[in-house]
Amino acid sequence: MDSNWILIGSDVIRLEVSKNPDIVKKQKVFQLHDGSALRIKYNQTIKSRSEQFRKCGVKLFDSLHMASIEYAGADVFLTTDAQLLKSSARTDIQIRVENPLSFYLEVLDNEQFGGNL
């Protein structure tokens, strides 16, 4: 895999995770988030873009995640949330939104055959 991959965190992730009543899961996600190479601060641009996604039927936190990762300039947004994957397809988001396993298999297959993503 490409050694230039980075984990991106955001204020939105921290806020959503803080609402999780499961303390163990919350701590695990916070530990992962604390290892983020880049953290996106909530701002007016993210708020405005999130509102555009909401008009396409995307749920509030999903729209905020999408707007944050797009603002970060990421190449791909990986999520296991099937509803988020489906709703993102109804938008004009400027990055790929993929299931991590599907994306990993694509990358692995691409590397085996010498292609580039």
Task: Describe how the helices and strands are arranged.
Blueprint: E1 8-10, H1 11-18, H2 23-34, E2 38-40, H3 44-54, H4 60-72, E3 76-78, H5 82-88, E4 96-98, H6 100-112
Parallel strand pairs: 1-2, 3-4
Helix pairs in contact: 1-2, 3-4
Structural class by helix and strand composition: mainly alpha
Q: What is the CATH C level class, in words?
A: Alpha Beta
Overall tally of structural domains: 1
Sheet having the most strands: 2 strands, parallel
Number-wise, the strands total 4
Indicate the radius of gyration in whole angstroms.
Answer: 15 Å
CATH superfamily: 5'-nuclease
What is the element string, with H for helices and E for strands? EHHEHHEHEH
Strand order of the largest sheet: 1-2
Strand fraction equals 5-15%
Distance between the termini: 11 Å
Mean pLDDT: 91
General shape: globular
- CATH-scheme architecture: 3-Layer(aba) Sandwich
What is the CATH topology assignment? Rossmann fold
Instruction: Give the % helix.
Output: 40-55%
Q: Which structural traits does this protein have?
A:
117 residues, mainly alpha, Rossmann fold, two-stranded parallel sheet, 6 helices, 10% strand
Task: Explain what you see.
This protein has six helices and four strands, in the order E-H-H-E-H-H-E-H-E-H. It is mainly alpha-helical and 117 residues long. Strands 1-2 form a two-stranded parallel ribbon. Strands 3-4 form a two-stranded parallel ribbon. Strand 3, helix 5 and strand 4 form a beta-alpha-beta unit. Helix 3 packs across helix 4. The longest helix is centred in the middle third of the chain and has 13 residues. It is globular.
